[in-house]
Amino acid sequence: MTAPASDWTIENAAWKTASPALSILIPFFGDDPVQLIRELSDQRQNVEIVLLDDGGRDAALATRVAEAVQALATPCRFVRLSANVGRARGRNRLTAEARADHFLFLDADMLPDHDSFLADWLALIDREDPGVAFGGFSLDRTPYEREFALHRAMALRSDCLSAGQRSLSPEKHVFTSNLLVRRQVFEAVAFDEGFTGWGWEDVEWAMRVARRWPIAHPHIPASHLGLDTAETLARKYEQSAANFARVVESHPEVVSGYASFRVARILSRLPGRTLLRRAARLAALSRSLPVGLRAFAMRLYRAGLYAEVV
Predict the structure, then answer these.
(1) CA 257, CA 49: separation in Å to the nearest integer?
(2) For residue range 144-193, what is the model confidence (pLDDT) as tens digits?
(3) Mean pLDDT score across all residues of the chain
């Protein structure tokens, strides 16, 4: 009879005596964080790394991560959960394992754009001590692959923005892919564990934070390697509709200014919106169409999904 799986935690030799200035918090579910943690360790700053395998079933990946953790010079703790708890609860759990007064959330499929990445974050903490700061992300280190061309085009248009562009809507452009949070702020405002699936839990968190603390947008970027195929992107948008509805209900005064809401509201009044949504999805998934047209179709498909919940 097989014994039930259980959570476990390991730490490397440097963990016990460390007094880090920054805790780097990295959840993963299937993605391999080994290159990321090695590059962070190579920057040799006064930080610690906390990893969370959120119920992944890949024992070989867990073993590879555990071996990499033990070999790091940087203090590192690795928590492996036996069951998936989701994006919001997993990140809340990571903060409970951290010891520094500042947290840097990074996704496992990110890589720093510069060797000064951690030094730049630590300098910002020393200089300004922001409550919340999003460093931005790029595709500078992301190799071009044709199957991810649609996601690349959409990310370059709406996600890979300059610090000045992000600052125009500070709470809208907050993602846990490269996010600094002061412990005091997070203890007052944690992620809402009522969100399930994919999408919006980080933006909704930022909406609540922005009521009490300014959100800074420095230029300390990291590259997003984990682009999705068109099919995967469509499935994520389908998952996100319920989360979008949750945000609309909680923050109507903020969301009403977003283009995604305004377009969804217009589509909600159209009698043929179901057919339009299906046509948009087909166009977005068609590799025979130009990428720009496919990107427009995918945004229309997302708005069509949101039209059912606004």
Answers:
(1) 37
(2) 999 999 999 999 999 999 999 999 999 989 999 999 999 999 999 999 88
(3) 94
Q: Does residue 3 lie in a domain region? A: no
- One domain for residues 61 and 209: yes
**Looking at the structure, do residues 159 and 69 belong to the same domain, yes or no?**
yes
Q: Is residue 248 part of a domain?
A: yes
Task: Give the residue among 92, 84, 75 at the shortest CA–CA distance from 22.
Answer: 75
Same domain, 176 and 290: no
Q: Is the pLDDT of residue 4 over 50?
A: no
Task: Answer yes or no: do 214 and 237 share one domain.
Answer: no
Say whether pLDDT at 44 is over 50.
Answer: yes
Question: In 3-state terms, what secondary structure has residue 310?
Answer: coil
CA angle 51, 65, 84 (to 5 degrees): 55
Structural domains counted in the chain: 2
Is 50 exceeded by the pLDDT of residue 84? yes
Same structural domain for residues 78 and 178? Answer: yes
DSSP assignments along 241-305, one per residue: HHHHHHHHHH-HHHHTTSHHHHHHHHHTT-TTHHHHHHHHHHHHH-TTS-HHHHHHHHHHHHHHH
**206 within domain boundaries:** yes
pTM of the model: 0.92
Reduce the DSSP state of residue 24 to 3 states and report it.
strand
Residues 189 and 236 in one domain: no
* Residue 76 φ/ψ region, left for φ over 0, alpha for ψ in the -120 to 50 degree band, beta for the rest: beta
Q: How far, in whole angstroms, is CA 167 from its chain's centroid?
A: 18
